[in-house]
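Our consortium's second objective concerns turning raw sequence data into structural hypotheses that experimental partners can test. To show how far this objective has progressed, the report includes one record in full. It was chosen at random from the queue rather than selected for favorable results. The single chain below, 214 residues long, was entered without modification.
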Amino acid sequence: MLLFIFSLLVGIIIHEFAHFIMARSVKCKVSFFSIGFGKPIYQKRIKETIYQIGWLPFGGYVSLMHELDYSRSKYAFSNLPYLKKMRIILAGCFTNIIFGIILMMIGHDFLDANTYYIGFLNLILGLGNLFPLWPCLDGSYVWLVWLEKFYGKKKGYSIMNKLVSVGMTVINILNILCVPWLLWYFRYNLLLIFYKIQIWILVAINYYINLLIR
């Protein structure tokens, strides 16, 4: 279970950091950098970006300045040329895929199952996010941003905003539903962790009792 959570967090951080770096490289301002979904349990503003950790750990996002609405700002995502938009949107997926393949090759060559597993999860994360038919996944932006060509910027981004909001709501619901399933799936690992913690507590208590007796 710990390996799964660690692998997932590594994949999410790499994915979102790639979006962040690419956005900054094309002078697009980043409003939020979030690891996890839902209400933040930690939040800190540095310059124009708010960095936060959400209580639902199975994902993350980088919110770009005016990503889903009309703006006149030259730093807004909506005013970037199409190719620059795609560089930002696809950076996360391709970083996960490349990183995943490299780790899988290392894990295979050195017979390291843990490294191979982290690489495999990164590969799945990257390929899964390229799925084009679900609004809010990176792959959907490839065609969603074309709505401005058919409806104009104001209406096009208004439609895009609604579609992405629905997609994100469903993703958050699935995240919540995954929590009890993961707890059940990894129940024996959790019991083992709980058992080890109990042993450590008893050992510590015994140690301090012996110190007091002496």
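The partners drew two points from this record. The chain has one domain: 2-213. The longest strand covers residues 30-46. Both points have been shared with the crystallography group to help prioritize constructs.
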